[in-house]
Batch of 3 targets.
Target 1
Amino acid sequence: MNADAVGEPLKLLLVEDNDAHAEMVKRSFEQHKVSNVIYHVDDGQKALDYIFREGEYVDEEKYPSPHCILLDLRLPKVDGLEVLRRIKTDDNTRKTPVVILTTSSADKDIAQSYEYHANSYVVKPMDFSKFEALMQDLGFYWLAWNQNPWR
Amino acid sequence: MGAFALVIALADFRLFDRFVPENRALRDVEARSALLLQSYYRYMLTPSLVDTDVLDADLVLIRQSLERYRRVVAAQAQKQVLADGLASAIDTLESSGNEMILARRQFEQADSLLRQLESQLTRVFDHYRGKVSDDIAGAMRASDWEELTARYLPELRMIENVHRLYLELFLEIRQLRIGEAPFGDTDPRERVAAIGNSSTLLEIYEANAGKRAWLATQVLIMSEKMQDAVTRFRDSRKAAEFALSTAEQAGIDLNQAIGDAIGFTQAEGWTGLRESLYMASLILLLTLLVGYLLIYFGLDRMLRPLEQLQMVITRLGKGDFKQRSGDAGRGDEIGRLARAFDSMAEQLEENNLQKQEFIKQLEEKNMELERFTYTVSHELKSPLVTVSGFIGLLRKDLAAGDREKAALDMDKISAAITTMSRQLEDLLELSRVGRVINPPTRFPLTDLCHEVVQMMQGLIDERGAMVEIEDEMPEVYADQARIREVIKNLVENGIKFTPAGCSPRVEIGAEPRDDRLLCRVCDNGPGIEPRYQSRVFGLFERLDNAIPGTGVGLALVKRIVEIHDGDIWIESRGDGQGSCFCFTLPIHRGS
């Protein structure tokens, strides 16, 4: 049940255009009990390139397939929802859990995300202690509690 | 006269009691139409404030009013046909009846006068005869027979003569009563005077002046009375004849009216009225019958188009605004109603089109507003999350005594606050573009571009940029301050996005195209791939986070160009060969 059983750190792809937010996520995970590696891309096109191993992300060793994807919705170049749709329509990538992590709590975004088969949808809390708690819970839930398909 | 009353009573039955002023019903329809139009106008202006049920209810009311009008017109038509026929028939009969009554009264007067005259004449004659007999008897007693004979014979002859004349007159008078023309053209007084002036009479009556004078006077009086009676008789006969012919004419008129009404004439066949005035009432009954038939078929002609119109209105009420009556060419009330309806329907159709257009625009605006608020709320929350997040991290770092990290945290907080205030400023500017519109003026584009370059001299020098402005570009007719913002944003972008180490080069040019001016701001930067070109104009859309900016600039540019009814697009392949921002501006009012 424990992620340690896999024998390797859990790989997380963070798709976040706001560098400050990305740093908050990373620093929250640094204190995490679950060992993890965060790969960060800052726009939608780079996210697609990473996931489908295109462009500068061809190297599988350097850019391994993530166990879970944290995806923001408003992204430069390619919108987060479009990234989600592409992930979930591809046979190879659709099993990867995608957690939408965004500032938007708009009904339209939530509905559309689940329509595209998002695995979870969480809104970034304004309060930092809650932000940290959320990151802890996300790590435990998706990387430890949750039975993941790659096993 | 009893027959008239009967006829009037018949005509009155079930017809006049149904009379309702049609105009009131028509005004009702018009008023309701006006109300509906008002409702539509209100609906058009503020669709959200008007319940469509109210419009439906208005339409139902109009339908009810039209139905009422339809019934009223039907009743009115019945009434009109009958009333016209009745009125003229009754007028004619009444006047001819009056004539007859007058004629009869005159005839009776003449008759009684004649009888009076006759009896007077007889009395006078008897008296005269008696006097003459007495005279003769006295003479016979007084003198010898020869002398008496010689003396009285001419007088007796004269008396006989007068007697004969009287008899003639009397006969002639009697003849008057049976309708023959009396005396011809001769005045009876002349004939009487001729008797009075005869020399024989004068000679014989010389000695008997008193008797002679009396007789002559009596004859004259009688002849005058007789003449009077004859004149009166003549007049009354004329009146009677006139009355008869009027009555006859009335009959013919009636006949003709009926003939006209039912399409053939039978004036020749009808002679009854000469015989009896009661025939007229028969004709009236016939008129009534024909009138009813006319109404029965006439109503069909009236009601069918009304029913059709009602159907058309029903379809119109269900939203088919292309419906028209098809009866606008008619000259009667239905034609008027149809024309009024058609003009109403045209107005409704036009209003509906305007309404649709308005709703479409409103929906577009609504969607734009929704996108705007969504984007704004999402985007403005982002720096807040950053600020609160790094305050939390700052606390931890300070607690751990990590001053270096704490300083970085504070940098992040300060950057987020700067971003937020810039975003707010830019948003304010963007919203101002839509609200505050300066009146357009004509100004040379070249001069404006030079102004912008002067304003941006700092940035240009810093990046070692080159800005080339085409000489003598045409004048434009626009909001000068806003166009300055457009040029500034585009030039700034051109310089900003060119990678460091490469000197930016921006070219501004313009050429007339289709009544407008096509402007181009081109740079030698990385360019924008076609797949991203439409996104970059979106609010807070940014292609490259490494370059500072709020993502509002191009949204603002697009907004300004659109307010000037222009288009904006990008020509670029995105492979490092630069990009051209193209947009159109008005050259003069209305272009």
Target 2
Amino acid sequence: MSETPTLSTTDEQTSRELDTKHIYQDSGEVAHHFERWARDGVTVLPRYEMPQEALNLYAEDGLNENLWTSKEEYQVPVQAVERIEEAHHPLTRAQELEMIYFSLDTLGMLNEISRTTAAVIAERRLA
Amino acid sequence: MSDLLKKTLTLLTGSPADSKRQLGSLTERQLIELEAEIGGTLFGPIPSGHRREFFCLDDHTWIWHEEWADSRNQRRVTSTRYEIHDNGVLKAQDGKVYKFLEGDELRNLTLAIRLYYEAVSRGIYRRDPMTGQRLSDNTTATI
């Protein structure tokens, strides 16, 4: 049985040392341009000097809302998932009522009990 | 449908139309007994050897009654009365005044009462609890 071939870690090409000398030279040239633009009154803000809040993804009103998504857009898939869940597991009547009664306060529940009791008595008398 | 066929079906299955007349001949107490049977099933399966009833006694009173035999085969009975007052629902258990219901316990009672109404409305009085319309004789009653 043959094994999955792997690349040799001692490959001559991959272990070759990268010549970085020209990169440092380029950096010096860029810095030189910045200095000249500054002398000429041109304001160019290098990225590493940008205000911290401009890159703060967690800021209240920073880039995060523009980069990601609004709350309204976020609700849509959540509601869709809920609808799919409901289709797979339809609510029982008891669960439906539980959700309706969840928002009732004590007085609301007392009124509901009185109304329903009156309805039961009415059914009995109509029989 | 011919008269003969109608009579034959009535003999075999009993006429659903007669149920109205039969209900009318029942006393209030008998109607309550019918309701109590349905009411007892609202809280899930009844354990073997238990007898559970939940019913509306009158305009202001609901009863939850449970009987069972304990491990020594002694008969145990718990009876809870819920009284509807203007300022709340008072719970009295085994004759002792207990407390005014609040929070989840009140919500659970509200839910049980509503389910009771819907179940007896369909199952006994043959009415749609949402509309009050009489259910047709062919409609299957769901509890």
Target 3
Amino acid sequence: MEHTSDEPMAGLQVVTAGDGADEIESQAIRLGLIGELDLATVGILDRRIDQLLQDGCKVEIDLSGLTFIDSTGLGLLIRRARGDGQADGAVTIRRSELANQVRRLIDMTGTNQTLWP
Amino acid sequence: MSVTNLLRETCPATPEAVRPLRHAVERYARAAGIEGEQLAAVLTAFAEAVANVVTHAYPDQPGDIHVSAAVGGNELRIKVADDGIGCNASSARPGLGLGLGLMADSCSSLELQERGRGGTLVTMKFRIDSA
């Protein structure tokens, strides 16, 4: 698996699965999030998704390495999962085990159906 | 009521300040014996309070955020304050509107006050349940 960590010191690493073994389908790239997705780091993920979509890829986001998320980070995931301003199905969220705080925020906001329609 | 190990921090209200402040509160809460779901609730509420300051308090100029935490008896009390435009002002950056609800749902008591000399003071209290 090729790791292309973007701004690793910023609290969030966006790890790209790039060797084929972790590709979910042709032209689909899995982005593993490691660390904290919040007001300070949300732009890292947003820019990475934009870059991949502009390259014609689909994106699957894996939250299993995420240790913290705030409403700003959740807002980005919701907008992307809903497909705001992008092609239908271009970005999906992988079902996975979630850290306590991440699962709690998603449950509290009732956004399960939006993230995993 | 005994108060132990008061945490007090002031720093510029920027996105870069969010994580160090949250980590400081996390260390403080863990030292007070808060873990698991309770810790998740504390960090969720605190993050929203800090994000509100960074996003809304200073639309036209830089400013500071003031954080304090104290444990007394079976309660953790966290205060997040700023010197900005106040909580009754409208914001040009409204966000998702989830923050206040998440704060209220995560703590046992939530108060928002206009500060006398300008700005907002948010006081959150969390019951510390023994494991």
